[in-house]
Amino acid sequence: MDRKNNPLDQFAVSLATLMIKLRWLIVILAIAIAGAVGTGMPKLAYDNNYRTFFSKDNPELKNFEDFQATYTKNDNFLLVIVPKEKTDVFNNDTLGLLHFITEEGWKTPYASRVDSLTNFQYTYAIDDELIVEDLIVNPGESSTEELARKKTAALNEPLLVNQLVTPDASATAINIVLQYPENDLTEVPEAVSYARDLRARALEAFPDHDIYISGTSMLSNAFSEAIKSDFTSLIPAMILIILVTTAIAVRSVSATLSTLFLVILSVIVAMGWAGHIGIKLAGPSPSAVIVILTLAIADSIHILVSARTAMRSGMTKREGIIEAIRVNFLAVSITSVTTIIGFMALNFSDSPPFRDLGNISAVGIFAAWMFSLTLLPALLSIVPFTVKPKPATAARPSFLTGFANFVIGNYKPLFFGLGFVSLGLIAMIPRNELSDEFRKYFTEKIEFRRDADKAVEHFGFYPVEFSVKAGEPGGVSDPEFLSKLEDFSNWLREQPNVTHVYSIADIMKRLNKNLNRDDPDFYRLPNDRELSAQYLLLFELSLPYGLDLNDRINIDKSATRVTATFDGDTSSKRMRQFLKEADAWYAANAPEFEAPATGAQIMFTFIAERNVNSMVRGTLLAVIFIAVIMMIALRSFSMGLISMVPNGLPILSAFGAWSFLIGEVGFAVAAVASISLGIVIDDTVHFLTKYTRARNEKQLSTADSIRYAFETVGVAIIINTFILMAGFLILTLSAFKINFELGLLTALSIGLALVLDFLFLPALLMMFGKDNPADTAPKNDPEQGIVRSAQAA
Q1: How many CB atoms lie within 10 A of CB 371?
Q2: Distances (CA, A) of 595 to 9, 236, 261, 490, 603
Q3: Using CA atoms in the order 186, 188, 193, 196, what is the torsion angle rounded to 10 degrees?
Q4: pLDDT in tens, 731-764
Q5: Which of 52, 112, 562, 671 could serve as a FRET partner for 302 with CA atoms 20 to 30 Å apart?
Q6: Among candidates 576, 692, 558, which has minimal Cα distance to 637?
């Protein structure tokens, strides 16, 4: 055994020897520690509020919460009803269904308001008296003439068309507004359960209709449903990959099961820790389980392959285990630390679930690191793990030896060719467009996505709210303010993608007409402030409980709410453009009034940009830390810098390739750089540690050191790359788009890292490696022969 007398190797040998000696105690301690920490797992719960994606300091979230404090919270269910016979909704059967859901909708847990065609507060005049009543007085019992009149009235009402009824009356909607006290995580699932039960009861009584449920409450619930769907399908698939891949790599059932045991303990430690500190699972954070399962196996594979190689050369099992720990201790430690740094950089994210993903994964990777160096050698010394020795005389040049010779012989074309391709891909990064549309966060496996897709066929989907401030109490009745409000509302209706605008200006015009004997010539804003205030007061006094204007006008009547609803195809780019245009309109036409825009889609529109900006700082800091670690570990400033080239290029190239594959990036993609940086560096670390070992300990030339690195660690790198890519590609099967993007882009980075580590890194070393004259000839090293023999086998 060619052990050098450096302190690190001595420590690794002593550690492995001790773990084998105390093997049963180590196994018991590992199980006890994992069990103790794992008691936190029952404390884990799913956070069902989409607001959890935004930090408390997020300005868009603050604006949204201020808006809801002024008016009402707009968590809602939107039930879209479509008659199957393609008739219009103004028939007694459909109106009876509407009435049933409207009445039962008030019983929805936490419901504060229900709006539909049947209870819309229709106004008209009899002489000088204002009549306010439900639009449909006798739902399900109206005459043909009455239905025709109500249809005409509804389709001429700006507050209804494209909001609660389509212009052709082919579909209608019911909006249930909810006020969650936010005391319990079961509130949203409780309301969703009632809404689905209500739909089932409605369809049983009125089977000739289709009913689709969307809204922000369904959005919130969809996040937890996507998580549960992933847990039941993706985790078993990942475990199967671990079993199959490890079994093929080490050809030992006992070693494979030992590895699986280690990985599961790592997951238990991470998730138990998360439960103990009170982390609520949301968005991408539960994917930490898949990430840990994927990454925890990497260290074990390197150790197992090295142990198998050593035993194949004639060492005993005990010697082989100790040697495997010795030669991998530095690399395993560096890769674990750098991967942890990459995930810890997610704490710079503007989105709390990504911080949780980073922290949970970091704890799991730390646990896997510790278990790999302690529990794994103990387990291997207990279980039957045998390898048939093969004499070195039977060695033949392995595939990797031939591959190394190819790279060495063509290092200049590879260096410039791959460098050119990488730079070309990097140049394509600006083609990616930031886009986040919460409807498209889910695949069609999730009910919310299926129903939302049906809903947008008939109605808009993304409401944008404006709180237009008049500047003084009672100012909403001022004719000048109402005139500007009407102008703004009309401007909104002219904008692309806007399907509906809800403004009190339309209510004031209708009231002015009603209180002037329903004369159509008076369908305009009143020109007297006192008269406007009287109209508004009279109307409010006539409204039933729950259908007042508190959701439209603030308490002192100094501000009012305008809602512009956008269609389901509105991109984030279009939304950002619209907001700039809205600000420009106010600056040019009503600079004296404030009207900040807010809403769920506004928040999601800017989350990607904020996440990118925040993660740039985190990733740069991670790069600096990792570079310093590499310099210290490799004992070379230049090698530390060189190591960052093949680590940075795959990530940047992957972003460039993404512009061709997808072209749109959401806020999940901002986290990929730091995650990938911590992962792709693993291959580089293992390659360079073997390379520097050959250079420093064996005094090999640059070319022979590259051959040595390929022969000693090439197989393990290939196996690990396959496992890592498979693990992250499994995330592309997720019902959650954020996981899909995270998985696909990370897998792409890992794949490109293998290409660059096997082709570009050796070429880079050949370009800048310096040989002593005595080192130019290939060395006939005994350990090379051992490794070649094992690889050839």
Answers
A1: 26
A2: 67, 51, 58, 15, 16
A3: -170
A4: 888 888 878 888 888 889 889 989 998 999 999 8
A5: 671
A6: 692
**Alpha helices, DSSP H, located in 106-179:** 144-155
Q: Binning pLDDT at 50, 70 and 90, where does residue 39 land? A: very high
Angle between helices 504-514 and 479-493 (to 10 degrees): 120
Q: How far apart are CA 252 and CA 383, in angstroms?
A: 10
Distance CA 35, CA 272 (A): 9
Return the axis-axis angle of helices 572-589 and 600-634, rounded to nearest 10°.
Answer: 120
- Cα–Cα distance, 205 to 98 (Å, whole number): 12
Where would I find the H helices in 156-287? 187-205, 216-250, 253-276
Amino acid occupying residue 687: F
- Specify the DSSP class assigned to residue 86: -
Joined tokens for residue 134 = 């439900």
Give the number of other Cβ atoms within 10 Å of residue 47's Cβ.
Answer: 23
Token pair for 509: 């015009």
SS3 for 295-324, per residue? HHHHHHHHHHHHHHHHHHCCCCHHHHHHHH
Pairing of strands 498-502, 462-469: unpaired
3-state secondary structure of 463: strand
- Residues forming a β-bridge with 736: 442
Q: Do 666 and 328 form a contact (C-beta atoms < 8 A)?
A: no
How many other C-beta atoms can be found within 10 angstroms of the C-beta atom of residue 386? 11
768 half-sphere exposure, CB direction, 13 A CA radius: 12
- Residue 127, sorted as left (phi over 0), alpha (psi -120 to 50) or beta, turns out to be left
Spatial distance between the Cα atoms of 78 and 108, rounded to a whole number of angstroms: 13
Q: What is the dihedral of CA 109, 114, 118, 123, to 10 degrees?
A: 150
560-593: string of b/e by CB count within 10 Å (b at 16+)?
Answer: bbbbbbbbbebbbebbbebbeebeebbeeebeeb
**CA terminus-to-terminus distance, the chain:** 21
* Measured CA distances, 557 to 185, 470, 480, 536, 554 (Å): 35, 8, 15, 10, 5
Q: Measure the CA–CA gap between 107 and 378, rounded to whole angstroms.
A: 61
Strands 433-434 and 664-665: parallel
Write the pLDDT tens digit of every residue in 573-600.
Answer: 889 899 999 999 999 998 888 788 998 8
413 Cβ partners below 8 Å, 6+ apart? none
Strands (E) in 541-655, as ranges, are 559-566, 597-598
Separation of alpha carbons 239 and 26, rounded Å: 24
What's the predicted TM-score (pTM) here?
Answer: 0.83
Under DSSP, the state recorded for 71 is S
In sequence order, the β-bridge partners of residue 131 are 124
